[in-house]
Amino acid sequence: xxxxxxxxxxxxxxxxxxxxxxxxxxxxxxxxxxxxxxxxxxxxxxxxxxxxxxxxxxxxxxxxxxxxxxxxxxxxxxxxxxxxxxxxxxxxxxxxxxxxxxxxxxxxxxxxxxxxxxxxxxxxxxxxxxxxxxxxxxxxxxxxxxxxxxxxxxxxxxxxxxxxxxxxxxxxxxxxxxxxxxxxxxxxxxxxxxxxxxxxxxxxxxxxxxxxxxxxxxxxxxxxxxxxxxxxxxxxxxxxxxxxxxxxxxxxxxxxxxxxxxxxxxxxxxxxxxxxxxxxxxxxxxxxxxxxxx
Length: 294
Hints:
By secondary structure, the protein is mostly helical. 46% of the residues lie in helices and 0% in strands.
């Protein structure tokens, strides 16, 4: 091999080495270094580490395979947002180990379930899901109410994840059942993201009388909506459960407009507002059904 060929070969090798080093440095700077910066691991403003009881519930959620039937992520699609609420943000999962986003919705998405219903709703729903939704294929979890939390395992998880806890938290955990833990976990899911301001109906702008009053098709439509959305709290036959008896309410002769406002705007801490998911016509249909119970 001539000196000229040796020179060309040396330059080619040098070029390959320099190119490889440049690509390696570029990869480290643009891919790996950012992974260790705070900016790549954002947290939503209201996000807090799981409490001991919440983490115990999360462990049970995984152990029972709930992630196989429920997702925990709302896609930024209009249909998803209208049905489940504000779409998911990366920063709300900063403390999730592992992520429980799921990929199958045999049951509804749970990303915005926290705070939607009172604790007692979840208690009864875990014990007998079919009492709320007759066609639900979710199994009953009656035994959760009689099984204690794994205190030792939960505290070990808290330490491994770096989550703070106090002796009082440990004492409370020792007295809790697995049902208590599951309810605590349900009530924290998705709560770090501020809910969009709810649609609120001004009573002054609501018709005094139901425009669908006395219409059989409206009563039937309202009954179907009641069965799907209200029966879990108020009973399949409006006899009352967690919430009061709608049959008794109907007999009080409440004004149509008052019933509409209650359904549309909800009752803080007791009943969700339906204005965001039901049209005005559908809410009036429910009012028609309620009036038919007099």
